[in-house]
Every structure is written in structure tokens, then in C-alpha cells.
Amino acid sequence: MNAQGTLADLELALRSKRDELSRQISWDLEHSRCEAANSGDLADAAQDEVQSELSSQLVALESRELDQINRALSLIRLGAYGCCEGCGGQIDPVRLDALPNATQCIRCARRSSRRAAAVAVKKWSSNITPHAEESAPRERISLHDLEMEYT
Ligand SMILES: [Zn+2]
User: Fold this and answer.
1) Alpha-carbon distance 41 to 89, whole Å?
2) Cα 95 to ligand 1 centroid, rounded to whole Å
3) How close is the Cα of 7 to the center of ligand 1, in Å?
4) One-letter-per-residue 3-state SS of the chain
5) Which of these, 146, 150, 151, lies nearest to 66 by C-alpha position?
6) pLDDT digits over 62-95, tens only?
7) CA 106–ligand 1 middle distance (angstroms)
8) Model confidence pLDDT, tens digit, residues 10-22
9) Domain CATH code at residue 84
10) What distance in Å separates the CA atoms of residue 130 and residue 150, rounded to the nearest whole number?
11) Do 37 and 51 form a contact (C-beta atoms < 8 A)?
12) Ligand 1 mean position, distance from CA 87 (Å)
């Protein structure tokens, strides 16, 4: 395998994916803002609430992916592409083939997705329990996150 060529191709692919994603995110943000501005009566407002919750979850998902792509790109630049962020081990090339922006090996990724799932469940149960104590502040997308690596 020609590692040099492959990495350069990969970097290009990741860059275009990153551009596409950030366009998508700004579109989603713009879109949900317009929907909020156009809300009519109360029933519509409730509907919009659900809609905008959905779009903000979508944006959160997309920006997480964007963040991962950015991290993969910096790893390429550092010459450390394919090293796991979690344990420092080598990421299985088969996994990288399937998921080029993977920055963790399968074991670390499973561990952190279990953690994310636990947080999601906690959030969900605090949503359906009216008097549940306030959970941790909601994850917000900051411009800083979106703009880093934009050099
Ligand atoms: Zn690992």
C-alpha cells in the first residue's frame, strides 16, 4: 500500500467532507432560526419547539462529526494518523478504511460511546421526570469548535 498517496487522498477526502459538513451545519442553524422566527400560534410554537429540538440534535451530531474530522486532519498533519487518542495504540487499518475519521481504536470508541449512551439516557429520564434535578448544562456548539482548524 502506498501510504503517502493514500494519506494525501484521505486528507483531501476529509477536507471536502469537512467543508460539506460545515455548510450543512450553517444551513441547519439558519433554517431552525427561520422556523423559530416564523412560528405562529401556540400549537405551531409547540410543533416548532419539537422541530427545533430535532434540528439542534442534528446539528450537535453533525458538529461532533466535524470535530472528529478536524481531529483526524490534525493527526494526519502531525504524522500520527491511525494512533488511538484514547490508549495511544494503533487503530485497526480495517476500521480506518471503513471509518476514515476514526480517532480511537474500536475498544476506546466502544467505551466512549457507552459513556455517551449513559449520558443520553440520563438526559432522557430527566426530561420525562418533571421534578428531576437539573442535569449538567446542555452541550452547546460554540463558534470556536466550528472554526478551529480553519487555517
Ligand atoms: Zn484505544
Assistant:
1) 55
2) 12
3) 21
4) CCHHHHHHHHHHHHHHHHHHHHHHHHHHHHHHHHHHHCCCCHHHHHHHHHHHHHHHHHHHHHHHHHHHHHHHHHHHHHCCCCECCCCCCECCHHHHHHCCCCCCCHHHHHHHHHHHHHHHHHHHHHHHCCCCCCCCCCCCCCHHHHHCCCC
5) 146
6) 999 999 999 999 999 999 999 999 999 999 999 9
7) 7
8) 999 999 999 999 9
9) 1.20.120.910
10) 42
11) no
12) 4
Q: 85 CA distance to ligand 1 centroid (A)?
A: 6
Give the range of the structural domain holding residue 71, as residue numbers without chain letter: 3-147
CB 39 within 8 Å of CB 45: yes
pLDDT at 145 over 90: no
How far is the centre of ligand 1, averaged over its atoms, from the C-alpha of 84 (Å)? 5
Total domain count for the chain? Answer: 1
Ligand 1 centroid–CA 91 distance in Å is 7
Rounded to two decimals, what is the model's pTM?
A: 0.63
CA of 23 relative to ligand 1 center, distance in Å: 31
115 backbone dihedrals φ, ψ, rounded to 5°: -65, -45
